[in-house]
Design a protein that fits this description.
The complex is a heterodimer of chains A (433) and B (336). Chain A is of the alpha+beta class. Chain A is built from ten helices and 22 strands. By secondary structure, chain B is of the alpha/beta class. The radius of gyration of chain B is 20 Å and the shape is globular. Classes of the chains: A alpha+beta (433), B alpha/beta (336). At the A-B interface, helix 3, helix 5, strand 2, strand 3 and helix 6 of A face helix 2, helix 3, helix 4, helix 8 and helix 9 of B.
């Protein structure tokens, strides 16, 4: 902890890890989050004093660390967490954005939201209860959202006398479970959030455990994918045309590299039109670049006078996707409006929004048994199921499990504009050639 | 009230095109070098910068008549700097809006005007005083005008038919803000309903809204106070001088050093002292407190922030101390 105290300042080589927490009620998630924030010196004195005052006012004998994350009046009054809360802390090695997702009310919706940007999901279990139904659901939601790294915090080890056999049994059950979900990076850590064992500091009470503490793991887990291994995906956000004497013919296609690398001289295809062209130059945020990679925000200039506008996707010629009007995907319903066959919705994908009709519902995933079964009824709030959609215009979509950011889409209410569902495209692998 | 009584000042942009971009060119070489070593990894600051620019471009691509709230505070300046980078070499395609309480620090107003000229943008100013004169707002007994900004703000948004309003709010500032979305829908009365927030997934920001509604957009959602200072340092961004240590006449109220002024301080029993202080936030003079500090450079401020045991708003904002849910209540009514 001394090391953290000495240098909480960030440097330019500092990396950022986004992770999400999930746990059932009473697993001690709030305590663990509080412990991480406290031991990394991220809760400042006045915040802690406010929480102490609020705890006393509520008649609690100890400081209720849950009050740190329950920011809304209704949450504090009802003693529940309604919404995903974002927390920030840093160590000399990394900065962290923690999406703290509530374990009970509408947990699937919140878990899916938190996991959508997370690279690691931290799942909590109570050492006395082991893997329970909620644990399976949390792991399944994280896997579905494409979270690459799972960390299992086996909490309350002090209540089982730091018994190694208890830990190993839970670890093995969980590892077996997630293997069926297609997640291969799992690390299990025995800890006590309340006492601080193996959270930041190594515990003398578990000499048999040789793995990392929770914070050591969060600091060491690989961040991001290697952009060089992925094909270029660049959704065009905005066309920059200065129309000044100095920049008379400047036409820059501004956007964020969502996957892959783009270099000056690359041959690229503009989708959905299918026209090919060459990257003439790349304008970074501080001047010209020879190459740009995900997730940089840049502006591309193309050598041909092709028609490109917001909503188009600039992609690598090799490994390009195809544009289609038929979209199939797994969706998680996030709103009270059920989604069924014949419904009209909007599909938001990349920077493009198109009208769509639900052609059919085919499957529903049971998060407890982790099995999909045929289902044709409308999907309701917190349901996860498979839909096929017919689109008014083609979009260039990728398989979500292959390319997360160009495989993701939203279903949006065509009247109110509200977000109805999170979608993950399913594209047959044979199309990738 | 007629339109001419409000949104008065329109500052004509200077002819200079964003020189801020040119100033930072030296940084490029070091970072290009980092990528040439084959790591292809963005640092934390580069990640936050790329995200902020992406958010700002989404608004320009999706929404009509955006406006950027500009107070002259460090967060709004960083947001403006990101906007300049997002559209270079073209001009920033939207104006700025400042809600002036009439109790602003003169140093900050001078800074505001020179910065507007530096970036070549158009500034609109909505004055709290106009609303007090017209009778649509009343002075509060405690003299603070900070909560009075909501009415002029919503009025300016309605008059300008702005469907997107950029704010410099950060989630690390306050517990209600920790639950705020990047794209946050406001109803036709400008109100925020935390229970009806849209889930926000991946970086697919949903700005669709019905006529009369608007979207508040927070490009710095994921930045911390320290990130903002590190970025100010890296980019060589000028800030109002009151952010750095200086000698000032102050008096103590509610444990904060306030600056004397026409807004109603000090009272009889409060005595003025001369101290070396700086400001961690820049707001209305009546409710923004200074902290004892000798940090006179960006690096010294960063060292100070890194070891501070008090949050930014806790140290310096009387308005957040009113109740436990003071910020949530103001946000519900349409505050920043």
């Amino acid at each position: 902890m001394t090391a953290i105290m000495e240098n909480a300042s960030t440097s330019t080589t500092h990396e950022l890890l986004r992770f999400a927490t999930a746990g059932s009620v009473d697993d001690g998630k709030s305590t663990l989050v509080g412990r991480l924030l406290h031991d990394t010196r991220s809760i400042l004195a006045d915040t802690l004093a406010a929480v102490e005052r609020a705890s006393t006012a509520k008649g609690h004998e100890t400081v209720d660390l849950a009050l740190l994350t329950d920011g809304l009046r209704a949450e504090r009054e009802q003693g529940i967490t309604i919404d995903v809360a974002y927390r920030y802390f840093s160590t000399p090695r990394r900065s962290f954005i923690l999406a703290d997702t509530p374990g009970h009310v509408e947990y699937t919706r919140n878990m899916v939201t938190g996991a959508s940007t997370a690279e690691l999901a931290l799942v909590l279990v109570d050492a006395r209860h082991g893997v329970v139904e909620q644990t399976r659901r949390h792991a399944a939601a994280a896997a579905l959202l494409g979270v690459r790294h799972l960390a299992l915090a086996v909490n309350k080890m002090d209540l089982v006398d730091f018994d190694e056999t208890v830990f190993i049994s839970i670890r093995d059950t969980f590892t077996e479970l997630v293997a069926t979900l297609g997640v291969d990076d799992v690390v299990a850590i025995p800890l006590s959030a309340l006492a601080g064992d193996n959270v930041v500091d190594r515990s003398p009470r578990s000499p048999w455990y040789v793995g990392p503490t929770l914070l050591e793991h969060l600091e060491a887990v690989p961040v991001g994918e290697d952009p060089a291994l992925e094909p270029l995906r660049f959704p065009v956000q905005y066309v920059i045309r200065p129309q000044t004497d100095q920049h008379h013919d400047h036409r820059g296609y501004a956007g964020r590299v969502q996957h892959g690398v783009v270099r000056v001289g690359d041959h690229v295809v503009v989708l959905p039109s299918g026209r090919t062209t060459t990257v003439e130059s790349i304008d970074g945020l501080d001047g010209p670049l020879a190459e740009a990679f995900a997730p940089q925000s840049v502006s591309l200039r193309l050598s041909d006078d092709v028609d490109v506008s917001r909503g188009d996707l600039i992609a690598a010629l090799d490994g390009a996707t195809i544009a289609t009007q038929d979209l199939e995907g797994d969706v998680c319903v996030l709103s009270d409006r059920a989604i069924g066959t014949g419904d009209h919705v909007l599909v938001r994908h990349g920077t493009r929004t198109v009208r769509a009709r639900v052609v059919g519902v085919s499957l529903r995933l049971d998060l407890t048994s982790l099995e999909s079964s045929p289902h044709t009824e409308p999907l309701r709030l917190n349901d996860i199921g498979r839909l096929s959609l017919r689109l008014a215009e083609p979009i260039a979509v990728d398989d979500y499990s292959h390319l997360r950011r160009t495989g993701a889409f939203l279903l949006v209410d065509d009247q109110e504009g509200s977000t109805l569902a999170a979608g993950m495209a399913v594209v047959a692998r044979c199309l990738e050639g | 009230m007629t339109a001419t009584e409000l949104v008065v000042d329109e500052h004509i942009p200077g002819t200079q095109h964003p020189t801020a971009i040119e100033r930072t060119s030296t940084v490029t070489t070091t970072r290009e070098h980092a990528s040439a070593t084959g790591t292809r990894r963005l640092s934390q600051l580069d990640t936050l910068e790329a995200e902020g620019v992406h958010i700002i471009r989404e608004v320009a691509g999706e929404l009509e008549r955006p406006v950027l709230l500009f107070s002259g505070g460090k967060d709004s300046v960083v947001m403006l700097h990101l906007a300049a980078k997002a559209f270079a070499p073209a001009a920033i395609p939207f104006p700025l809006l400042h809600v002036d309480t009439g109790h602003n620090f003169p140093e900050v107003l001078a800074y505001r005007d020179s910065t507007v000229e530096h970036y070549g943008v158009r500034l609109m100013v909505a004055l709290v005083q106009d609303h007090i004169d017209a009778g649509t707002l009343k002075e509060r007994p405690d003299g603070t005008r900070n909560p009075l900004q909501t009415v002029p703000l919503l009025d300016a948004i309605e008059r300008g038919r702005h469907t997107a309003v950029f704010g410099g709010g950060r989630r690390d500032e306050e517990k209600a803000r920790a639950k705020e979305r990047v794209f946050s829908l406001r109803d036709e009365f400008g109100q925020w309903d935390p229970r009806r927030q849209r889930p926000e997934l991946w970086d697919l920001y949903n700005g669709r809204h019905r006529v009369g509604e608007h979207v508040r957009v927070f490009p710095l959602s994921n930045w911390t106070e320290l990130d903002v200072w590190e970025y100010v340092d890296r980019e060589g961004i000028d800030l109002p001088e009151i952010y750095y240590a200086h000698e000032r006449d102050v008096f103590l109220r509610d444990g904060m050093w306030l600056t004397p002024g026409g807004w109603g301080g000090p009272k009889e029993h409060e005595t003025i002292e001369r101290r070396v202080v700086r400001y961690r936030t820049v707001g209305d003079m009546s409710c923004t407190g200074a902290v004892d500090s000798t940090a006179s450079t960006v690096r010294e401020v960063i060292d100070e922030v890194a070891v501070s045991t008090i949050t930014e708003r806790g140290a310096t904002r009387a308005d957040d101390r009113l109740t436990e849910a003071a910020m949530e209540d103001r946000k519900r009514e349409g505050y920043f």
